[in-house]
């Protein structure tokens, strides 16, 4: 059997069989060695994977396969095979998910389990007319997925991540299928667990819960548009631009939006609406100026129905409510321009500034209700919630149908854009980026960005390319170096977008590509024919061969 040679004719399947065979021999011999050395009986512990943090809570879309949770299994003392465990899919966050709770089988009728990119076990199923393999059914009566004969091997003193994905049903009417705004959690239960090693089986495990997910038919995506205008005294002065996009799977609409305003060396006038009002919202994409606003508020607090000014050196909020909701068709977007009134500007150039950004206040989800319920009674009484939108999933959708939601989990509300008095502005420049181009999965990487701007830098943002929240670092001075860090939880090629902004809204953008690799090679049939990867496979097999010989020598074989 030894040595084993790998050449260009070795197929991926043959190579994998060799690796599996050697791994099995390593496990068997390691178990014998553990028995000789008197190693403690195998034990496993399960905890929520570090990648399943609060940043991973959010919207999942109907009629898609979506991530419900990531869980990390760790085998201590000896290698073990996970044979069985229970997963509960319900609508509540439970410390001990062994308790009975409301099920969500109409939202998620099946789940699939992933070890990296490999789908584990299960049978065939059909959801929304799409055929899938490796499905595990969610019980209609209990919400439990009873996993048996899983045969998932975890090597001694190592950890493996199990990703739970749900096959989300389409949203239906009159209680059929999924419900818009339904909450979904995935839990590893403490009951029904068994993992076995050479010295025995372990049936004790701690429960663990994933983050909250919320089902919608589509979702909005909000972003800032860089604007380089000049701050001027007057009414309805262009001050901020932003974009509202709809996911490609479906249309959305919004009716309420809020902005954070920070004033320096000038005063923002209290908002007024109407044909001659000092506050306007233009639909740039469609060419419709001064959209009809039913109400507008301005105050230092969001919990206010005032129309107060925001003076220099202070900050506050501007809240706008549209008379008619703005509709965005699937996969498209609309750009908007906010106009405000300003006065009492300091005369020196770049001494009077207004920094404005989209803002999100709500920390709890409120959805699946008519617009008036989401807004609160009486309607339009203050700036809470800060954003109200709909996935238009209800039959004969209107403001009275139960498919409206607040802004919880809507992404992303970007950093501020500033406009100042003065006629010219020199844009910032990214002069250097250092950091890894290759990174192991679940390992932190740090990238350092150097940037300059003649009038002063404002911020650095990094968009990570993995559907996680972007990172922002606030900058000062005309030349600076800042670092940002990130950890990727899945393998693949990622594009990181770095942007620096100055205090006047100008920006510079640079991108880099990072190859996120697994701790062990992932060989596809295409990759096997590449000489470098064949050499890597040969090294892996040689390492396993040496390990087997070493254990055999310790056993005296």
Write the SSE topology:
Elements: H1 12-37, E1 43-48, E2 58-61, E3 65-76, E4 80-90, E5 110-115, E6 118-120, E7 123-127, E8 130-137, E9 144-147, E10 152-154, E11 158-167, E12 183-188, E13 194-197, E14 200-202, E15 208-209, E16 213-216, E17 220-225, E18 234-246, E19 252-264, E20 267-268, E21 280-283, E22 293-299, E23 315-328, E24 333-343, E25 353-358, E26 367-369, H2 371-375, E27 388-390, E28 404-406, E29 417-420, E30 429-434, E31 438-440, E32 444-452, E33 457-463, E34 471-474, E35 479-487, E36 492-502, E37 507-517, H3 525-528, H4 531-555
Parallel strand pairs: 2-16, 31-37
Antiparallel strand pairs: 1-3, 3-11, 4-9, 4-10, 4-12, 4-13, 5-6, 5-8, 5-11, 7-8, 12-15, 12-16, 13-14, 17-18, 18-24, 19-23, 19-25, 19-27, 20-24, 21-24, 22-23, 25-29, 26-28, 27-28, 30-32, 32-35, 33-34, 33-36, 36-37
Structural account:
This protein has 557 residues and is mainly beta. The protein contains four helices and 37 strands. Strands 2, 4, 9, 10, 12, 13, 14, 15 and 16 form a nine-stranded mixed sheet that branches. Helix 1 packs parallel to helix 4 (531-555).
Kindly summarize this structure in a few lines.
The chain has 557 residues and is mostly beta strands. It is built from 4 helices and 37 strands. The strands form 6 sheets. Strands 2, 4, 9, 10, 12, 13, 14, 15 and 16 form a 9-stranded mixed sheet that branches. Strands 19, 22, 23, 25, 26, 27, 28 and 29 form an 8-stranded antiparallel sheet that branches.
């Amino acid at each position: 059997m030894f040595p084993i040679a790998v050449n260009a004719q070795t197929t991926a399947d043959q190579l994998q069989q060799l690796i599996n065979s050697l791994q099995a021999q390593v496990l068997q011999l390691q178990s014998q060695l553990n028995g000789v050395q008197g190693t403690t009986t195998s034990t496993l512990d399960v905890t929520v994977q570090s990648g399943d943090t609060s940043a991973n809570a959010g919207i999942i879309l109907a009629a898609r396969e979506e991530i419900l949770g990531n869980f990390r299994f760790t085998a201590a003392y000896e290698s073990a095979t996970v044979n069985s465990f229970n997963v509960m899919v319900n609508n509540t966050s439970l410390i001990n998910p062994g308790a009975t709770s409301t099920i969500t089988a109409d939202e998620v009728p099946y789940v699939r389990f992933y070890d990296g990119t490999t789908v584990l076990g299960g049978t065939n199923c059909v959801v929304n007319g799409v055929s899938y393999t490796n499905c595990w059914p969610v019980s209609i009566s209990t919400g439990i997925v009873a996993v048996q004969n899983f045969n998932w091997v975890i090597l001694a003193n190592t950890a493996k991540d199990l990703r739970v994905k749900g096959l989300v049903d389409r949203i239906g009417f009159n209680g059929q299928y999924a419900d818009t705004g339904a909450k979904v959690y995935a839990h590893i239960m403490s009951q029904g667990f068994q993992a076995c090693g050479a010295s025995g089986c372990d049936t004790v495990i701690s429960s663990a819960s994933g983050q909250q997910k919320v089902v919608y038919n589509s979702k909005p995506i909000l972003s800032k548009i860089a604007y380089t205008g000049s701050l001027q005294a007057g009414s309805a002065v262009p001050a901020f631009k932003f974009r509202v996009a709809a996911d490609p799977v479906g249309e959305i609409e919004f009716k309420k939006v809020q902005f954070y305003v920070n004033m320096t060396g000038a005063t923002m006038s209290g908002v007024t609406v109407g044909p001659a009002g000092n506050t306007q919202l233009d639909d740039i994409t469609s060419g419709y100026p001064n959209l009809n606003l039913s109400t507008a508020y301005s105050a230092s607090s969001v919990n206010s129905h005032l129309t107060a000014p925001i003076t220099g050196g202070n900050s506050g909020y501007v809240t706008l409510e549209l008379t008619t909701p703005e509709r965005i068709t699937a996969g498209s977007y609309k750009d908007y321009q906010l106009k405000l009134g300003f006065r009492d500007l300091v005369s020196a150039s770049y001494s009077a500034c207004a920094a404005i950004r989209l803002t999100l206040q709500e920390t709890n989800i409120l959805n699946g209700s008519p617009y008036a319920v989401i807004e609160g009674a009486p309607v339009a009484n203050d700036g809470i919630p800060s954003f109200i939108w709909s996935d238009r999933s209800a039959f004969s959708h209107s403001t009275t149908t139960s498919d409206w939601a607040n802004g919880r989990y809507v992404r992303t509300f970007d950093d501020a854009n500033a406009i100042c008095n003065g006629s010219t502005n020199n844009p910032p420049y990214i002069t250097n980026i250092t950091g890894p181009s290759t990174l192991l999965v679940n390992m932190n990487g740090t990238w350092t960005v150097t940037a300059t701007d003649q009038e002063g830098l404002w911020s650095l943002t990094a968009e990570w390319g993995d559907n996680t929240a972007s990172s922002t670092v606030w900058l000062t001075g005309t030349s600076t170096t800042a670092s940002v860090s990130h950890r990727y939880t899945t393998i693949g090629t990622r594009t990181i977008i770095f942007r620096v902004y100055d205090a006047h809204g100008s920006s510079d953008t640079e991108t880099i590509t990072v190859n996120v690799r697994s701790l062990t090679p992932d060989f596809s049939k295409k990759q096997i024919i590449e000489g470098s990867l064949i050499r890597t496979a040969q090294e892996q097999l040689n390492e396993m061969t040496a390990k087997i010989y070493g254990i055999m020598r310790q056993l005296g074989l």
